Amino acid sequence: MARKEHKSLEVSDLKPCVDGQFTDSYGNVVKHGSRIIIESTYGGYNKNNQEALVEWDEKKGMYNYVLVDDWLKSRDNFYGICKFRVKQNEIRE
Predict the structure, then answer these.
(1) Phi, psi at residue 50, to the nearest 5°?
(2) Mean pLDDT, residues 62-73 taken together
(3) Does 1 fall in a domain?
(4) Burial of 58 (0-12, 13-18, 19+ CB in 10 A)
(5) Does a structural domain hold residue 2?
(6) Model confidence at 39: pLDDT above 90
(7) What pLDDT score does 7 carry?
(8) Residue 30 has what pLDDT?
(9) 61 lies in which domain range?
């Protein structure tokens, strides 16, 4: 049986990217210390319309958000967040 040749990967095979920047659902740049509003999640409504702070986790090489809900502070990654925005007065270029 003849072996099938595989096409090599090219940059054009990648999804579009904005210079590697992390952006909100509206294209605004998100950075360490940005305040965000979580608009919707995949897992339910308990975080919708809540404010959180964004932090860079250097060890894991990813952004997390810190949410204070009453007395409990939690750190989570952005998996499960389907829509969020940077607070208008926090937009940074």
Answers:
(1) -100, 150
(2) 83
(3) no
(4) exposed
(5) no
(6) yes
(7) 78
(8) 93
(9) 20-90
Report whether pLDDT(14) > 90. no
Q: Which two tokens stand for residue 58?
A: 């250097």
Residue 70, judged by CB atoms within 10 A of its CB (0-12, 13-18, 19+), counts as: exposed
Q: Rounded to whole angstroms, how far apart are CA atoms 27 and 6?
A: 35
Both tokens of residue 80?
A: 């499960």
42: in domain: yes
Residue 84 belongs to domain with CATH number:
2.30.30
Q: Is residue 83 a part of any domain in this protein?
A: yes
Q: Which of 52, 62, 57 is nearest to 22 (CA)?
A: 62
Q: Based on the structure, what is the number of domains in the chain?
A: 1
When pLDDT is averaged across residues 51-68 and rounded to a whole number, the result is: 91
Instruction: Give the type of residue at 88.
Output: Q
CA distance 45 to 51: 14
Provide, rounded to the nearest whole percent, the portion of the chain with pLDDT above 70.
84
Q: Which two tokens stand for residue 82?
A: 């389907």
